[in-house]
């Protein structure tokens, strides 16, 4: 017999936009009221958005947020007996807490302060928050609900304290960002801690700068079985009905099947691009389309994220551009129906050469001239951006950023680095996966050897190890923090490991100046990788 009807609002908040976030919570509450629900969950820090970073250090931000919470409470007062759990910050005794309150009938029934504050990887919560100490258990229609916030459930203590206070169902509000394999990790980390209680895990969804939240909210029954899972990478509402013991008896959705890993990444990247532009006030994007695989993949992602009408591709041939690059770029742009234009840069390159001829007299041609080409293209794209308001998407992949195989103020110029956490081998796998759904990337772009086309007959492998080898070493060194000896023991040649490790170290300064982009692996360059630029350490 149903005792309590509980709603899950897997919604997409905007960091800092307090009125918009409050309106989203109020909309979900209106839905919950209409459905006759008793309890509604919203994500961790729903009101501020997550992570609000140093906005949290501004007293005015905290004050406005508190006022918004009071207003929200009033706005929902007419939804009689609906308990809305809202994540917000609370200043108390000179300390700031990552909090969640139960709002009902126009007042705050109780407030919980998060116990465990993550301070690793991309998280910085100890910079802002103090830890709460007390459990919170509240009763609705005879069912006892415990409350936890995200990291709390990754440790045994907070769920155990809720259980000790008689909780039959544990409600966990989350802002848990996506990375490959993260859903399994969440389950593995949390399931044992919540055993014996029903657990309702409600996660936020949406892109926020370098992070993308997948939602994927789920319900575990007291035996640890997955009773329900909401869709991934989209907003969703769900209902679970609990019996008098807090056990799930009826669900609005059967467990949602995970998309495979390539589809997950595709959806993560498109959501990240969409939200970065939409939340920043942009509708259109522009990129340099070279006839190579990286810009082809970024174009396909941009079209899926923004729609063909909002994407502009610019081919900028030089004397080193192969005919097939032009043919393939045209074919791809035409197939996708995006605006496409060609700007020949040969004259601009020549003008640079002539201007610098006195200074460069007697010196050999080297990467200087290669970089000038990349910088001319970057300059032209930024001009198009300035004039049209379209954001420049950069096309560098993780393998290139790891090794510095990219030009500062050249192909690195732009606003959002869509595939900066996608290693080159994964670039190919994603391209093939996307073409299986519908062919958008001409086959030759996938099969031809990668080249920067900055000098005659150049290929990437003139300067870099084979991408299979490079990516495996980068994954071991960057994602798993393995030592050179460990990587060698896995069978890689010492001189190749040394070359890669050296390039990673030497290119730190470039990554610091590069555009941000979405994290999809267990460790991305960005918030997650804080290496010194000036660095004397040698292994
Ligand atoms: N520690 C440090 N801190 C701050 N700045 C530092 C620095 N070390 C050098 N620099 C500066 O950086 C400059 C060197 O960097 P930068 O000008 O970018 O140029 P650089 O790294 O020398 O050359 C770019 C490389 O990327 C390759 N590339 C370019 C474009 C596209 C692709 C592709 O396939 O996608 C590949 C190209 O073939 C070349 O091998 C130095 O001249 C110096 O001004
Ligand atoms: N001829 C070109 N026309 C337009 N953009 C270009 C051109 N060449 C390079 N670019 C831009 O600079 C980026 C770096 O490209 P480059 O060809 O040097 O190496 P890449 O990493 O192999 O990229 P891609 O696989 O897209 O060619 C490209 O992805 C593209 O955005
Ligand atoms: N917001 C949080 O507390 C996130 C930390 C948590 N371990 C996660 O990634 O899911």
Automatic annotation (TrEMBL):
EC numbers on record: 6.3.5.1
UniProt GO MF annotations: ATP binding; glutaminase activity; NAD+ synthase (glutamine-hydrolyzing) activity; NAD+ synthase activity
CN hydrolase domain ranges (all copies): 4-244
Matching InterPro entries: C-N_Hydrolase (IPR003010), C-N_Hydrolase_sf (IPR036526), Gln-dep_NAD_synthase (IPR014445), NAD/GMP_synthase (IPR022310), NAD_synthase (IPR003694), Rossmann-like_a/b/a_fold (IPR014729)
HAMAP family on file: NadE_glutamine_dep
Family note: In the C-terminal section; belongs to the NAD synthetase family.
Protein name per UniProt: Glutamine-dependent NAD(+) synthetase
Gene that encodes it: nadE
